[in-house]
Amino acid sequence: MLSSDSISTVRDLQRKLAQLAGDLADGTPQSPEQQSTLRARLHELLQELEASSPDLHRHDGELAAARAALEEERRRYLELFEFAPAGYLVTDAEGAIQEANRRLGALFNLPPSQLTGRDLADFVCAGDRQRFQERVQGLAQGRETQVRDWDLSLCGHGGRVFFGMISVERINGADGHPSGLRWVVQDVTGRKRMEEALRSGEERLRLTADAAELGVWHWDLRADKVMADARVKRLLGLAPETTVTVDLLRGILPPGDLEKSERAVRRALIEGKDFIADFRLVWPDGTPHWVQARGRAIQNREGQPIFLTGVLLCITARKQAEEERERLLSEIARQREFLEKLVSTAPVGIVVVGGPEHRYEMVNAAYQAILGVPDEAMTGRTIAEVFPAEAARAALDLVEMVHQTGAAFSAREYEVNMGPGRERTWWDVDGIPFKDANGDILSVLLLTRDATESVLARRQVEELMGHIERERRFFQRILDAIPVAVTYLDRDLIYRHCNAAAARDLEKPLEQIIGCRLDEVTAENSAIVKAVQSVLQTGKPYPFPMITFCSPHNPREEHHYLISYLPDYDDSGRVVGVFAEGQDVTGMVRAEEQLRESNERLQAVLSSITEAYFALDAEWRFVEINPVAEQEIFHRLAGELIGKVYWEEFPQIVDSEFQCRYIGAVQENQPVHFEAKSRLTTGKWFEIHAYPRGGRLEVYARDITDRKRAEELTRAALLEKETLLKEIHHRIKNNLQIVYALLNLQSRNLKPENVQQALKDSQNRVKSIALIHEKLYRSEDLSHINFADYIQVLTTNLMRSFGAETRGVALDLEADPVFLNVDTALPCSLLLNELLTNCLRHAFPGERPGRIQVKFHRVEPEKLTLSVRDDGVGLPPDLDYRRTESLGLQLVNTLAQQLGGTLEVSSDGGTEVRLAFPPSRQTKGHQNR
User: CA 497 to CA 482: how far, in whole Å?
Assistant: First the structure.
């Protein structure tokens, strides 16, 4: 660039040329010497001007380039001003708005064009408006040049009220007087609410401290003497007889806390304000404690401090909450600093992407730091050239979304994969479109913040909190699953833990136990307090003997417990608490009492029962014998047998059924029941019940000699009756055979064919009845007959009687093994006889061959079917089997009604008669036989 000296030289040459041109234009005659001198000067000036001409041309080029750069910077400034995340505006010296960006319009709920010309005071809430106008007047009059972090209540169009943090500086004109004001407005409503919450928490903390037990101290500044009560000495870990001095306090405070406390005291003395100081102490016994000192300076009439008085309280239990509060305050301070830097230096990653290829037009340092790429490697390049393939596609999708919708967007915790070797990152991205006058998108402004740390921290916190909660629930489930009552008391005898079994034994809900003192939970606590204090003092377990409590709900109900107390140590080996384990043994005590009473009752029962009873131990020795066993089995007194071996005292039992059954019961651990004849008493039978229990064998014996004799007499009488009944059936069968033979002899002497046929039918009917009786007296069961076997014999006899095989008539038989009683079998056999006779007589006239099917099945538990089918000529079309004069068909209908069944007749390619009937109550199937 042309230097200031060069510019001065050029300007001097221009002045000299102008002066020489004036002399030449004067018109005054010049002498030759003067003309020669003028020409020489002109020649020199032209040479100097020619030498300076390149500098002038270069100066013009540099000036044009500077103007172009200035114009580009102005354009970028306007873009940042328009789309900045904070509200920017410019007003005149009285506060009238001259220029505003979009963010301010969004805060006031009006477009920027409608804000121009309006008084900024109109947007300040009534309570802060007067203070605002006085401050603006002070800036306009020059009393102040700038204001930082000014909190005001603002209201936008439509009634929206929010807290604003305002920074303003004065703009001076060329004359040095104020020409306007430059403003920055931020919405800090969220921060204000958090501060209000913190103030409310501090107030509650102050009230809680005032209500607590405090140590009071008093420092006389004139006498340099400190007075402190016993609580102060106890909180400082000092002996009651210790004299508290300023030097003593300086000696026990850590250096850092001492310096902080002295600063707070000096500020209280100088400014006359209260002070609060927290510091950490280590007591002489080595235990750390946190205390808080609060003080106030008392001044005399001249305003000089003469006393410093205050309180001291232990804040060890509250320190965790205090540290959490400090963390929150630190976080708020960090956020505030972040917002201030955002306004002044724009720490957010800001880039402008434009053109059809989405090239980077502008990149700031924060974005470069987030991406890890220098500016010269990004400006002018496309997104696809800077990002890896996967990350480029995700970024392009966001830019394309702005182009497609024409609206801004916000993407929170957007995951960006920067490729192999790079850690996972998450960004918060805001996209804002830049449009021309026609509404077409020229470029996209992207505001980017690295959210990786917050995402990872939140996930770690969530994972840690979940792990802690799972551990707590797991620990509590373990405690609640333990049937033994478990509690934990601290050094102040306050319950800190309690499981479900302990709450049940104490007969109180957990909220009335946890956090309560021992004497508040149980009134009968003198012995328990002594035991707990012994563990706290000695550090040794304390086994407590069994104690008895009365239930608070029922004073007559006693509970018995076995309790043990175990010490709990901290890392330094000091006893900090006591574990109490209590087991309710009320049931065991009551069970022992009941067992004793039960044994007494058992002995009384064994002495009173009418059955013989004795018990043997695992070595087969007598352990119990009742009087009945003494008299009826062993014929010896119990005192002579108790403790002696069963087999040695009664060798006649060895190798008997008694020994086999007794040994089997013990080995298989199963009870046995049997009847046997005694070897100890001649002619006596006993019913034995032997039960192995708890390593011993208990035997009950009942004398059944009389019952055995009665059974033998009954069995003999029954055998005699069965023999007599079989003889009756045999004689009925023989009588029916005689009737059959007489009918046969008579049929030989009768020539008419119809008479012979009638006699033959009668013979077959009699024979079917005789066959029933023959089956009965040959069967073991005199009341039931296997009807399947009966059908086989009956059909064979009828086929042979009619010479069916010689005529070419075959028989197919299917029969289930069903047992019928006599009342059902007789009508059923007669009905089957009639049906087969009709088939053999009428179905196959002449020498026509054919086939007959007989089926007998149980189709349902309470339903039987009997069917007879032939493939003969069939029934006449006009035949009504229900109203026929044929004796055989009439007999079939009658027998079907007698059986309580239904009869179906069909004539299709032959004749089929099907009978369905229920079995009688006494009928049983073959599976029961």
Answer: 14
What six digits make up the tokens of 164? 């604003």
- Give the CA angle between residues 581, 586, 589 to the nearest 5°: 120
Q: Distance between CA atoms of 858 and 797, rounded to whole angstroms? A: 24
Across the range 171-197, mean pLDDT stands at 79
Find out whether 63 and 70 touch, Cβ atoms under 8 Å.
Answer: no
Give strand pairing partners of 220.
225, 307
Q: Report the C-alpha gap between 713 and 927 in whole angstroms.
A: 32
Q: How far apart are CA 535 and CA 580, in angstroms?
A: 11
Place of tokens 């299709």: 908
**CA distances for 397 relative to 349, 370, 400, 424, 505, angstroms:** 19, 20, 5, 19, 66
d(CA 416, CA 412): 12
**In 710-771, where do the E strands start and end?**
none
Pairing of strands 809-815, 850-860: parallel
- Which 3 state secondary structure label does DSSP give 715? helix
Which tokens belong to 146? 């700038």
- As to burial, measured by CB atoms within 10 angstroms (0-12 exposed, 13-18 middle, 19+ buried), residue 885 is exposed
Highest mean pLDDT among 8-17, 209-218, 555-564, 821-830: 821-830
Average pLDDT, the chain: 77
SS3 helix, strand, coil % of the chain, rounded to 5? Answer: 50, 25, 25
| Half-sphere exposure in the Cβ direction for 569 (13 Å, CA) | 8
Q: What is the pTM of this model?
A: 0.29
Amino acid at 11: R
Q: Is the pLDDT of residue 504 over 70?
A: yes
Predicted confidence (pLDDT) per residue in 713-764, tens digit: 777 667 766 765 666 666 566 556 655 654 565 455 555 556 666 666 666 7
Q: How far apart are CA 567 and CA 546, in angstroms?
A: 20
Strands 409-416 and 542-543: unpaired
Taking alpha carbons only, the member of 565, 519, 516, 568 closest to residue 542 is: 565
Q: What single letter denotes the amino acid at residue 472?
A: R
Q: Which two tokens stand for residue 459?
A: 């996930």
Question: Mean pLDDT across the stretch 85-101?
Answer: 84
**CA-CA-CA-CA torsion sign (321, 327, 329, 332):** negative
Interior angle at CA 905, CA 899 and CA 907, nearest 5: 160
What 3-state class would DSSP assign to 461?
Answer: helix
Do 580 and 565 touch, CB atoms closer than 8 A?
Answer: yes
Measure the CA–CA gap between 608 and 547, rounded to whole angstroms.
40
3-state secondary structure 879-905: CCCCCCCCHHHHHHHHHHHHCCCEEEE
Q: Give the DSSP H or E segment for 662.
A: helix 657-668
Q: 751: which residues sit within 8 A by CB, 6+ positions away?
A: none
Contacts of 234 (CB under 8 A, 6+ apart): 215, 240
Would you give the distance in Å from CA 209 to the centre of its chain? 41
For residue 52, what is the enclosing H or E element?
helix 32-83
Half-sphere exposure of 667 (CA within 13 A, CB side): 6
Segment holding 82, helix H or strand E: helix 32-83
As a whole number of Å, the end-to-end CA separation of the chain is 130
Q: Which residue has the tokens 């991406």?
A: 371
DSSP state of 494: B
- In 52-138, which ranges are E strands? 87-91, 97-100
Give the E-state strand segments of 374-503 in sequence order. Answer: 409-416, 425-435, 441-450, 485-490, 495-498
Rounded CA separation 743/65 (Å) = 153
Assess contact for 627 and 711: CB atoms under 8 A.
no
Beta bridge partners of 869: 853, 912
Q: Which residues contact 825 (CB under 8 A, 6 or more apart)?
A: 772, 785, 787, 790
Measured CA to CA in angstroms, residue 724 lies from 711, 729, 779 at distances of 20, 9, 14
Spatial CA neighbour of 118 closest among 98, 93, 88: 98
Q: 270 falls in which pLDDT band (50, 70, 90)? A: confident
